[in-house]
Amino acid sequence: MAPDPSQELVEPESWQLLEFLATRVRMVKKEAGFLTDLGDGLVMLDDDDVPNDWVGSATSIYVDRISGSSSSRAQSSSDVGVVVEFAVPRHSDERHPHRLVHRARKDLVRVLKVDERHFPLGITKFEVLESQLAEVTDDTGHTSVVAQITARAGLTETFQPLTTP
User: Fold this and answer.
1) Of 21, 26, 124, 142, which cross-links 39 as Cys (Cβ 3.0–4.6 Å)?
2) pTM of the prediction?
3) Alpha carbons 148 and 75: distance in angstroms, whole number
4) Calpha distance 144→40 (Å, rounded)
5) Phi and psi angles of residue 122, each rounded to the nearest 5 degrees, phi first
6) Distance between CA 158 and CA 71 in Å, rounded?
7) Phi, psi of 103, deg, nearest 5
8) 123: which residues sit within 8 A by CB, 6+ positions away?
9) pLDDT tens-digit profile of 106-160?
10) Alpha-carbon span 144 to 141, nearest angstrom
């Protein structure tokens, strides 16, 4: 049987979590009382979010692991590791990149402190675990100053059981 085109595609709960976090990061603006304007910059969830000629700072949000904790035929619970990373290329026009990264780390930790009742359905908990500051060099030799926040989310996914003919 062909899928019904009138039914809207619902993204997996893990992707909905990333989209929710991106919405939170876009709230980070000086006019809202934050130290930076990260929300006006590039916030990426996927490689296609980055313009080919992009050379500035950016915030990346991704899942680094999903480990199952329990499941049944129609539902699965997992712990999800999430990373929110803000990077400033050392060769960019940004003045004081180290100070900016310190400010960005504080803003990101603040904006990620969310009442769990505001998360999308299927996200059962969320906690910031750790933050760190570092200088990293990519494969091409470009150096960036980075603030990285790691968090853990509880995820409950529901499935429509398949029937066997």
Assistant:
1) 26
2) 0.87
3) 32
4) 19
5) 105, -20
6) 10
7) -65, -45
8) 13, 16, 17, 20, 116, 153, 154, 155, 156
9) 999 999 999 888 998 899 999 999 999 999 988 888 889 999 999 999 999 887 7
10) 10
The structure tokens 């999903």 sit at 66
| pLDDT tens digits along 30-62 | 999 999 999 999 999 998 888 888 878 999 999
| Count of CA atoms in the C-beta half-sphere (13 A) of 15 | 5
DSSP secondary structure letters along 40-100:
GSEEESSGGGS-TT--S-EEEEEEEEEEEEEE-SSEEEEEEEEEEEEEEETTSS-SSHHHH
- In the block, tokens 């916030």 appear at 43
| 1, 32, 81, 106 from 28: Cα distances, Å | 46, 7, 22, 11
